């Protein structure tokens, strides 16, 4: 029996996350979620189970509401890097979830790196 697209996505997502857990060393995880209309990112402390900082294309102050493109993802990446600095975080592991590392996900990661976050 063939697996559905959603089941394959879940397998990829869990495979990536489990690999990150094995090399985590207490660093927070930068988790990305991309939908058909928006992109969001969270800095998560897996030990405490809390979100340390977050950013989303739904936030009006970023000026990208309603835009789902590479430029919007880059603005979200820059915003999370700035918020991470305010929270005192300089390093994190990049969790792409089940998404491929190209396009919007890559633009978000590159913008976060340019903003001073080590991924």
UniProtKB/TrEMBL annotation:
GO terms for biological process: translation. One of its GO terms (cellular component) is cytosolic large ribosomal subunit. GO terms for molecular function: 5S rRNA binding; structural constituent of ribosome. Gene3D superfamilies: 3.30.420.100. It comes from the Bacteria. NCBIfam families: L18_bact. Belongs to the universal ribosomal protein uL18 family. Part of the 50S ribosomal subunit; part of the 5S rRNA/L5/L18/L25 subcomplex. Contacts the 5S and 23S rRNAs. This is Large ribosomal subunit protein uL18. It comes from Kangsaoukella pontilimi. The gene is rplR.
């Amino acid at each position: 029996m063939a697996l559905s697209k959603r089941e394959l996505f879940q397998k990829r997502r869990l495979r990536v996350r489990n690999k990150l857990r094995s090399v985590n060393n207490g660093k927070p995880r930068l988790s990305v979620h991309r939908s058909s209309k928006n992109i969001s990112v969270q800095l998560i402390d897996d030990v405490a189970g809390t979100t340390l900082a977050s950013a989303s294309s739904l936030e009006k102050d970023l000026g990208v509401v309603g835009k789902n493109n590479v430029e919007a993802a880059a603005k979200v990446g820059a915003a999370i890097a700035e918020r991470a600095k305010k929270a005192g975080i300089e390093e994190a592991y990049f969790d792409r979830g089940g998404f491929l590392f190209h396009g919007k996900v890559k633009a978000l990661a590159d913008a976060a790196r340019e903003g001073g976050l080590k991924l």
